[in-house]
Amino acid sequence: MADKKPIIKKNALGRGLGALLQDSPQKGKGQDELIAAPAVGIYEIPLSEIQVNPFQPRTHFDKEALQELSDSIKVQGIIQPITVRKLADGEYQLISGERRFQASKMAGLEKVPAYVRTANDQQMLEMALIENIQRENLNSLEIAHSYQRLLAECNLKQEQLGERVGKNRTTVNNYLRLLKLPPDIQAGLRDNLITMGHARAIINVEDIDKQLDIYKRTIAEELSVRKVEALVKALNEGPEEKPASKIQGLDPVKKYEIGKIQQRLASHFGTKVQLKADGKNKGEIKIPFQSADDLNRILEILDII
After folding, report:
1. pLDDT tens digits, residue range 54-107?
2. Residue ranges of domains in the chain, CATH in brackets
3. Taking the C-alpha atoms of 63, 80, 149 and 157 in order, what is their torsion angle to the nearest 10 degrees?
4. 98 flagged as catalytic
5. Of the residues 49, 98, 126, 131, which is catalytic?
């Protein structure tokens, strides 16, 4: 279209996202269906020609924050262009920047500046997820779901995912573990009734009913993360577990060191690890798994598959 001339020549996006948005030929399915995009640059595109992103990982937008962004756009305009892909002449689909897109509509704009890129569905999903993880204030549960979708739908391994989002494998795994919590606790995390620190402590309790009891008590008593961690520790070290008996013949200092190692292993593998040792420095490590997928996840962490 004649009115869509580039207003800026630029090729400097975020590190992770930028690698995905290169204009070199794309690989993967749907390549023959990609619509050729204009040259690299920023184009003024009518809002009426832009469709929303069906792969948008963010499920909730704060109305007050959106209104503040809209008011800012009325005064300052859009400072950071949105990113779209071209579907056909006069038809585009949003890749990233939905908050700016929605706020621009609220501000009454007719056109917005946009990067135009080519991408098939899988590439678009990866772009949208990573852009949101890196640039938006997603809550921890939304990040966890985004990580899960990148693993499942973009065929990434945890190590590759960590490289994409600039996080180590343990951090990625800590987020993914949140998805094992029961729905009520996940909802509380989503609604900011508890923090990720609370959730990470609660998930170390295996019994779901006990998890829910601690969750409800956390909210009712406004417990700090440290207090929840203490509750969980007391519960796990109760008469049923008796972890001290698994570390026989060791002095208190070595028992403490073994206990810390056990905690680090549990955090690394995302499951409760059992570590037994005796005074002769002999013992064993048990790493339980709940399903074939869970086993594959642990094997991947061990770099066996």
Report:
1. 766 565 677 888 888 899 999 888 888 888 888 888 889 888 788 889 999 999
2. 6-121 (3.90.1530.30), 244-305 (no CATH)
3. -150
4. yes
5. 98
